[in-house]
Design brief:
The longest helix is centred in the last third of the chain and has 23 residues, at about 240-260. This protein is an alpha/beta fold and about 270 residues long. It is about 35% helix and about 25% strand. It has 2 domains: about 1-80 and about 155-240, 3-Layer(aba) Sandwich (Rossmann fold), CATH 3.40.50; about 85-155, no CATH class. It contains 8 helices and 10 strands. The protein is globular, with a radius of gyration of 19 Å. A hairpin with a 2-residue loop joins strand 4 (about 60-65) and strand 5 (about 70). The protein binds adenosine-5'-triphosphate. InterPro entries: AAA+_ATPase (IPR003593), ABC_transporter-like_ATP-bd (IPR003439), ABC_transporter-like_CS (IPR017871), ABC_transporter_ATP-bind (IPR050166), P-loop_NTPase (IPR027417). One of its GO terms (molecular function) is ATP binding. It holds the Pfam family ABC_tran. This is ABC transporter ATP-binding protein.
């Protein structure tokens, strides 16, 4: 039975592709409303597959996948999905790009203008409202994509290595903005990465995926940092270094289990 606070739930999941064996097997996972959950694991272990299940783009071979207590049948319109890809429309201004999900949902024009204005302000893009994506820096484009993913306030935001292409400084800035923005909005996030430091900075809870194929959730870490975090200071503390070490151990265990089982995915 789904708890009142649970928004997404996977029970005893098995999934694979075509004639191939399962890539994930026996996966149990829940996300509570308002939680920032990160799936951390080596390349090819099945992290994106879990996001695609939440988005209703894939069906499991076995097990249950539920959103707000209901089975997911078909595309899940309650989720926002931000990938590594730059999917801004190059011929539309920043504000038109950000408003796109609202226009598609036939939201009245005045309401669109109000919400676009709010997100331009939150993500510090007001000065760029009338620019085209080609006139923006990489970090500004990521912020515009983040605004577009959040503007219709999806109940669950799926993020698949959204900052992988940014340089270290810009990525750090995005971590600060993402956490502040989603916590202010009470947004629930399922985030995918193979970057330990990124996972340690932004998450409330981290699940290590791996140990396959078929893989699963091999470890869980509830991070000891509060909801309000000063990421500029936190990343240089001993406590942060300890968390990074723990996550690193978890990842190494997942890889050695994969090797011992004859699996492994070459990353
Ligand atoms: N549509 C598909 N058809 C066939 N195989 C697929 C499909 N999608 C994923 N796979 C395979 O399933 C496995 C898991 O892929 P997935 O993209 O979920 O991994 P990942 O952990 O997100 O990897 P990465 O970190 O490299 O993005 C891989 O071996 C991949 O080749």
């Amino acid at each position: 039975m789904t708890g009142q606070g649970t928004i997404f739930e996977v029970q005893d999941l098995a999934i694979g592709f075509g004639e191939r064996d399962d890539i994930l097997h026996g996966v149990d996972l829940t996300i509570e409303r308002g939680e920032f959950l990160t799936l951390l694991g080596p390349s090819g272990c099945g992290k994106t597959t879990i996001l695609n299940l939440a988005a209703g783009l894939l069906r499991p071979r076995a097990g249950h996948v539920r959103f707000a207590g209901e089975p997911i049948n078909g595309v899940n319109r309650n989720v926002g999905y931000m990938t590594q890809d730059d999917t801004l429309l190059p011929w539309q201004t920043v504000q038109a790009n950000i408003g796109l999900p609202l226009r598609m949902r036939k939201v009245p024009k005045a309401e669109i203008a109000r919400r676009v204005g709010r997100y331009l302000e939150i993500l510090d893009l007001g000065h760029a409202a009338n620019l085209l994506p080609g006139q923006l820096s990489g970090g500004m484009r990521r912020r515009a994509l983040l605004a577009r993913s959040m503007i219709y306030e999806p109940k669950l935001l799926l993020m698949d290595e959204p900052f992988a292409a940014l340089d270290a400084q810009m990525r750090h800035q995005m971590h600060i903005e993402l956490r502040e923005t989603v916590k202010r909005a009470g947004q629930t996030v399922m985030f995918v990465t193979h970057d330990i430091t990124e996972a340690a900075k932004i998450s409330d809870r981290v699940l290590i995926v791996g140990g396959g194929p078929p893989g699963g959730i091999v470890a869980e870490y509830r991070l000891p940092f509060g909801v309000e975090r000063d990421l500029d200071a936190l990343r240089f503390t001993d406590e942060f270094a300890r968390v990074e070490q723990e996550l690193n151990r978890g990842l190494l265990d997942a890889r050695s289990k994969a090797t011992a089982d004859g699996g492994g995915n070459g990353s």
